[in-house]
Amino acid sequence: MKYYIILILLNCSIFSETKKFPNIPLNESKENTIYKISKKDLYKYQLALEENKFETKENYSEDKESVFLKLNESEYFILEKYNIKNKKIQYAPFKYYDLGYTKRLEEGYQDLDSIQNGYKDEILNEIYLKNIALNFPTKVELHSLGKSRLGRKIYALKILPSSKEEIQGSVLFLGAIHSNELISTEHVYDVIYQILKYPNKFSDRLKNLSIWCVPIMNPDGMNFFWNISSAMGRKNGYLPTGMSEQHLYRGVDLNRNFPFMWNSGQKKASSGNKESVFFRGESSASEPETKAMIALARKERFIFSFSFHSHATAVLFPYTIEETKNPSDEYPKFLGEKILKKLKSFRSDRDYKLRKNLYPVDGTDQDYYYNSFGTNAYIFESSHHNPEYSIVKKVLLGARKSWVLLLDEFYESEKIIIQTFNENKEIIQSNIELPSIEFFEDEKFNSRKIDALFIKLFKEKIKLKILISAREYETKEIELESSSDLRLNKVILKKISEKN
Ligand SMILES: [Zn+2]
User: Fold this and answer.
1) Is 100 a member of any domain?
2) Distance 382 CA to ligand 1 centre (A)
3) Do 111 and 43 fall within a single domain?
4) 276 C-alpha vs ligand 1 centroid, how far in Å?
5) What is the whole-number distance in angstroms between the Cα of residue 298 and the centre of ligand 1?
6) In angstroms, what is the span from residue 106 Cα to ligand 1's centroid?
7) Is residue 2 scored above 60 in pLDDT?
8) Environment of ion ligand 1 (residues, CB < 5 A)
């Protein structure tokens, strides 16, 4: 008898570990339709539920005059039967679907576990990040990268390195460039939560790394999605002249607004039509959100980045834009294959795949970071779109090993690290050329301004000729061999002598 019980228990735990879930967005499910009724009819509705032996649920939100009910078909039937005047709301704001939202706002931040309680809008994001910064002052810094089109702050939480090592690299995790993809923000919060909750697991991994977490790059879109209409949120707050403020199709698709191959002319890669969901903006990097991210990326020169989206269940490696040719060393694809092996999909009809792209695109953040700074930049397409929050936790679990791998890869992979100085031992930013690697897209690399470090990762052990130059300095040619440990090559550049 005892054996049976143990077997049953074992089976249950295996079942819950491997159980997969279909992709059912809260805001698109047939089970969840929003109906507006008058406030005076709420009592009548609740009475009707009781009379019909329906469980009385807290399934509504309200504003001054109206009540917004989240109903399935049989619950809706009650409204008809009892002649309760109602109006079906197409693309209702997301707050009417996520009924725990008001409670989370009231509770605010209690402790770190609060950030695991549900989806976040731009207000909760601000509350949580400010409180995390207050509660972990030696571990994190809160930064505002700039303001959105409508003046909202774009917050970044920098998780600080755990020691003051000479070699320092940066990694970026970014969510909600498309703010209707709520789970993208959750992926970034999972990085924050895991690192702060389990410091022992990450202390060594953070010796030489800063982790920049931007949970919501597009706070205006987030506000639209939660408060105006769930048909909005992909784009930002840009308002073309002549368009009404509440127009569902206002805004720029920020992931078509980055400078690399902006408006490339490739068919369907982006749109010049202001009402299109792929509207690329009036000019390259026209949007303040894009500018804010460019400034951060230029300063940090991220080694890795994940830009989270939903829900193609895929990892896209650069270049994601068609007809762009990768440098001959092809490191991002190689790393992409390793990332894929770490991913577990909890989606019932799809496993994660490694891909170049899903459909034609241009002006994306990923390719810009790769082209301008050599960042191994991935688009991470999560497996579910706005699912019930209990499923989000599974999705995050299935993705966790992949972002931890990035941190480990920094320490374990073959790499070359250079720091450039002048003869007075002061750091100077320099241009780095790698003539033995073939480049096709005019990639030009520099050491960072903040610490004159240049870090490049390779698939395998390599010996490279490297040209290092800076304005007013003699160009230096060196040969370096990669190593898997953190070996710093200090290079001194000589000032060009002024003979005349
Ligand atoms: Zn997206």
Assistant:
1) no
2) 10
3) no
4) 14
5) 23
6) 30
7) no
8) 178, 181, 309
Alpha carbon separation from 165 to 144, 168, 194 (Å, rounded): 26, 7, 23
Helix (H) / strand (E) element for 183: namely helix 182-197
Could you tell me the distance, in angstroms and rounded to a whole number, from the CA of residue 310 to the centre of ligand 1? Answer: 6
pLDDT digits (tens, 9 = 90+) for 294-315: 999 999 999 999 999 999 999 9
* Pair 21, 391: CB distance under 8 Å: yes
Residue 254 alpha carbon to ligand 1 centre in Å: 10
Looking at the whole model, is its pTM more than 0.90? yes
**Cα 201-197-377 angle, rounded to 5 deg:** 70
Residue with token string 């009402």: 275
Distance 375 CA to ligand 1 centre (A): 20
Does 284 lie in the same domain as 250?
A: yes
Whether 159 is in a domain gets the answer: yes
- Inside any domain, residue 499: no
How far is the centre of ligand 1, averaged over its atoms, from the C-alpha of 316 (Å)?
12
Residue 488's domain spans which residues?
414-492
Distance from residue 294's CA to the centre of ligand 1 (Å): 18
- What would the pLDDT profile of 129-180 be if each residue is shown by its tens digit? 999 999 999 999 999 999 999 999 999 999 999 999 999 999 999 999 999 9
Q: Is 98 a member of any domain?
A: no
Number of domains in the chain: 3
H or E stretch including 154?
A: strand 153-159
Residue pLDDT, tens place only, 21-67: 999 999 988 888 999 999 999 999 999 988 888 876 778 999 889 99
Residue 409 CA to ligand 1 centre (angstroms): 26
**Are 221 and 129 in a shared domain?**
yes
244-293-128 Cα angle (round to 5): 80
Q: How far is the CA of 184 from the centre of ligand 1 (A)?
A: 8
Asked if 261 and 319 touch (Cβ cutoff 8 Å), the reply is no
Give the sheet arrangement for strand 353-355, strand by strand: 140-147, 153-159, 209-214, 169-174, 304-310, 376-382, 314-316, 353-355
Q: How far is the CA of 102 from the centre of ligand 1 (A)?
A: 26
Ligand 1 centroid to Cα of residue 178, in Å, is: 5
Q: 261 and 363 in one domain?
A: yes
Same domain, 204 and 78: no
What's the CA-to-centroid distance between 235 and ligand 1, angstroms? 10
Do 448 and 332 belong together in one domain?
no
Q: What CATH number should be reported for the domain holding residue 173?
A: 3.40.630.10
Q: 426 CA to middle of ligand 1, Å?
A: 43
Q: Is 499 exposed, middle or buried (0-12, 13-18, 19+ CB in 10 A)?
A: exposed
CATH of the domain at 459: 2.60.40.1120
Beta 209-214 vs 153-159: how paired, if at all? antiparallel
Q: Are 116 and 131 in contact (CB under 8 A)?
A: no
- The CA 183 to ligand 1 mean position distance, Å, reads 10
